[in-house]
Amino acid sequence: MRAPGAIKSALGAVMSSVGPYDRNGSTNGHKPYRYSAFDLLRHGFSQADWPRAWRRHDPKSSYDVVVVGGGVHGLATAYYLAKNHGITNVAVLDKGYIGSGGSGRNTAIIRSNYLTPEGIRFYDRSVKLYETLSADLNYNAMFAQRGHLTLAHNDSSLRTMRWRAEVNKLEGVDSEVIGPDEIKKLVPFMDTSEDVRYPILGALYHPPGGIIRHDAVVWGYARGADALGVHIHQNTEVTGIDVTGGKVSGVRTKRGDIATPVVVNCTAGWSTLISDMVGVKMPVSTFPLQAAVTEPVRPFLNPVIVSGTLHVYVSQTDRGELVFGASVDPFTSYSMRGSLEFTEGLAGHVLELMPSLAKMRLLRQWSGLCDMTPDFSPIMGVTPVAGFFVDVGWGTYGFKAGPVSGETMAALIATGKMPDLIAPFSLDRFASGSLMGEKGAAAVGH
Ligand code: PYC
Fold first, then answer.
1. In a 3-state reduction of DSSP, which class is residue 118?
2. 24-69: per-residue pLDDT in tens?
3. Cα 323 to Cα 441: distance, rounded to the nearest angstrom
4. How many whole angstroms from 225 Cα to the centroid of ligand 1?
5. What's the pTM value of the predicted model, to 2 decimals?
6. How far apart are CA 372 and CA 375, in angstroms?
7. Taken in order 411, 258, 229, 74, is the CA torsion positive or negative?
8. Three-class SS string for 123-186?
9. C or N: which end of the chain has fewer Cβ atoms within 10 Å?
């Protein structure tokens, strides 16, 4: 459809005043691109292409900071370096496309109902950042705080839920244990009867939890970082990291060498391989985690449901699909393929909880790589190699921590001071024995 001439030229005038980038992605300056509701209308009426959300560049010969990994952690780190600390000579490198790893493969669950006070404080800050993220980035990430229920099917699970609820409350996080009648009100389709194989005795209810559109989080951070001057280099695999006199001095990539005093390892799946490049060993083993999605149906499931005993979690997207996940596969691997064994197990477990889903059709399944640490907490901060920072070991809980990880890693790199929120997750805890056991609050039992 074409707009009549007068309207079209008025729209054109507005248009020329907005975007800093031309259709090839080159920049006229670093003015942040601010979309308005009017942009949609304007683009609908005009024949112009949408401007690129981030630019393409040739890698420069040097940067102040090089972030390896273009997922939510890497992009958020770059964004907060630029936004909070004015450090803009930053490159984010990804060997594929941004969000092609865990950030685009997770099940988009956000929550802070962890077990340890340190974990709860950390993830609570992430929930707070997620709450304002759409406004901060001017990019609709569709955070839906629909509540999060972790079901208990036996006495020991119920005890853990009570424990988590109490620690959550002490940390000011909204969580409580509720019984089957209240669960039924929140999820009428759930089979809460007593004469089933896995009766539901109660649940940890966490109202601030919910889901978000994970690709929008990646793209929003990428656009925000780019607008502040960060260079995002996709298809730029790191092949080596140079260390001179115990300090990072550069990165080798398939697109050339880059001099830099700071490298931040924000990868998942490849975190051990990148750290090996500077001789730093990570206590991490990599496992695939599978997930699946159904055809869309009318909205019927509001909260996120997790069952540790049945090794399954499910949520319904705003588009109506049901998204399912499980625990990690029981063997280490770098495979990102789905398996029939997973689908069969998943279907059986889901039907224990919601028999009425029997006729739904699965559309796709996939898997992502989870870097598990011995205590189910991440590894963040400095390493024995000066200038080599890590934000890794994210197991099955990395996506929800993206904003707070970016914020705190940026603060550490910019100021040289360890933020209190991440001090408990340092690499040296494995030498000192100060582990941060979060297994009881990981998504499902592992
Ligand atoms: O920790 O909430 C979680 C989670 C969901 C899916 C994988 N991990």
1. helix
2. 344 434 454 566 777 778 777 877 777 789 999 999 999 999 999 9
3. 20
4. 26
5. 0.91
6. 8
7. negative
8. HHHHHHHHHHHHHHHCCCCCCECCCEEEEECCHHHHHHHHHHHHHHHHCCCCCEEECHHHHHHH
9. N
